Amino acid sequence: MNLIFIGDVVGSGGRKAVKKLLPELKREFSAQVAVVNAENSAAGNGLTGKCLAEMSPEADVFTAGDHVWDQKGFEFEIDRIPNVLRPANLHHVQPGRSWAIFRNPGGGDYAVIALMGKVFMRDSAYCPFETADRLVEEIAPKTPNIFIDFHAEATSEKLAMSYFLDGRVTAVVGTHTHVQTSDAEVLPGGTAHLTDLGMAGAARSVLGRKVEDVLTKFTTGMPCRLAVAEDGPIRVCGAVITYDYRSGRATKIVPIDRMVEL
Ligand SMILES: [Fe+2]
Ligand SMILES: [Fe+2]
């Protein structure tokens, strides 16, 4: 079985590129399903039901991160959207679900868990290791196919999480830094790992934001609105994970890095 994972989608360009590219990627890799991190899909910050609808049904499951509540009103919308997940290790009173089990039309069920890091992150989150441990224990009797989006800043925290869960989940892939790392591998226990998937955002940008705005901020130290870069091709990054749906262990992880002209 093959599952596609796409990193942080930035703005309308990212949404359009993902919608356009996913059917081609699904064909090319014989992938049945795609999980997309949508935390920056609404104008660069947060997500809305409308933005997720735009990427559906090409994207099957959406994950969020530290920007999950940036769009006003999404806290009232999230419970009505069954295929969107917010980080699990946030305060328990927050709305939305953080994991769910979905049916793969190709065979077997698969669970997706959204999780957030603690190191260098602006928001306080509970210990992601303790949360992951508890959730994996809970989900494992239901399905061996468990995919984790670990939305975190520190490469060390992300790699450590993959080793922590090696042999117990199908894949742990990182999001949030918007730059793809080159360390895709299947760990000894059969868990696929990639420290960061990268983003789906303007190729000519700084993490999906206009280069000029980011330069102004860095060279003056003054607050500056960082507009979403929408010109030119969109770079769509992620990975394809091949796994045995009876054992839940991964056999291969291949990074994706494509340019999409809109
Ligand atoms: Fe992001
Ligand atoms: Fe983030």
* Shape field: globular
Summed over residues and divided by their number, the pLDDT gives a mean of 97
The CATH class label is Alpha Beta
Termini gap:
30 Å
- Quaternary structure: single chain
User: How many β-strand stretches?
Assistant: 14
Give the distinct bound molecules.
Answer: fe (ii) ion
SSE-based structural type: alpha/beta
Tell me the fraction of residues in β-strands, as a range. 25-35%
Verbal overview:
The protein has 262 residues and is of the alpha/beta class. It has one domain: Metallo-dependent phosphatases (Purple Acid Phosphatase, chain A, domain 2). Helices cover 23% and strands 28% of the residues. The chain is built from 6 helices and 14 strands. It has helices at 11-28, 49-54, 74-77, 128-139, 155-165, 211-220, and strands at 2-6, 8-9, 33-37, 61-63, 84-85, 99-103, 109-116, 146-151, 171-175, 185-186, 192-194, 199-202, 234-244, 249-260. The strands form 2 sheets. Strands 1, 2, 3, 4, 5, 12, 13 and 14 form an 8-stranded mixed sheet that branches. A 6-stranded mixed sheet has the order 6-7-8-9-11-10, covered by helices on one side. Helix 3 links the parallel strand 4 and strand 5 (84-85). One fe (ii) ion is lined by residues 8, 39-40, 65, 176, 178.
Short note summarizing the structure:
With 262 residues, this protein is of the alpha/beta class. The protein contains six helices and 14 strands. Helix 3 links the parallel strand 4 and strand 5.
Topology:
Blueprint: E1 2-6, E2 8-9, H1 11-28, E3 33-37, H2 49-54, E4 61-63, H3 74-77, E5 84-85, E6 99-103, E7 109-116, H4 128-139, E8 146-151, H5 155-165, E9 171-175, E10 185-186, E11 192-194, E12 199-202, H6 211-220, E13 234-244, E14 249-260
Bound molecules: fe (ii) ion (FE2) (2 copies).
One fe (ii) ion binds next to loops.
